């Protein structure tokens, strides 16, 4: 994998290199308690819950009959990042940010929970950093590979080198990313509209051709 920078001196002023373990409060596995898909109980994440990079509540399981202690142990809080550490190569390293208030969702098996330290790491920034590492092939490079499935252990994740700007700069970077992504999404929608219009135009040309109007004077 190619890196943005290799030396501390190459970083912008105020930025530092840090291992992931130094900027998080927690990294842990989820509950392995048996789930149901009948909507009975408290929602719990599954590996497919984050397959599109967000929390998809249509793809959660449910657990009933839990004690308050277990609910507290596995309850997700705003700012938590779910990380797919056991998956096919195509999906390995996918993440989703839990950013919901006043809702109880439990952390389920086959996803790691990463809880950033709020005093030094902005969850949205770290989540985008994970996206970059995945797209750049870092997670594939540190994974153990088996038939149809790969995995990354916690030790390797904890040792990941993160280029970390000051906290206010992390917020500014996230705001800029989201501004640019919004423009990109608008561009995609405009392109889709243009493609629809082009299809209609092509159909109109062919209709005129078969009706003898295309070359009529």
UniProtKB/TrEMBL annotation:
<dbReference type="GO" id="GO:0009307">
    <property type="term" value="P:DNA restriction-modification system"/>
</dbReference>
<dbReference type="GO" id="GO:0003677">
    <property type="term" value="F:DNA binding"/>
</dbReference>
<feature type="domain" description="Type I restriction modification DNA specificity">
    <location>
        <begin position="12"/>
        <end position="182"/>
    </location>
</feature>
<dbReference type="InterPro" id="IPR044946">
    <property type="entry name" value="Restrct_endonuc_typeI_TRD_sf"/>
</dbReference>
<protein>
    <recommendedName>
        <fullName>Type I restriction modification DNA specificity domain-containing protein</fullName>
    </recommendedName>
</protein>
<comment type="similarity">
    <text>Belongs to the type-I restriction system S methylase family.</text>
</comment>
<keyword id="KW-0680">Restriction system</keyword>
<dbReference type="Pfam" id="PF01420">
    <property type="entry name" value="Methylase_S"/>
</dbReference>
<dbReference type="InterPro" id="IPR051212">
    <property type="entry name" value="Type-I_RE_S_subunit"/>
</dbReference>
<dbReference type="InterPro" id="IPR000055">
    <property type="entry name" value="Restrct_endonuc_typeI_TRD"/>
</dbReference>
<keyword id="KW-0238">DNA-binding</keyword>
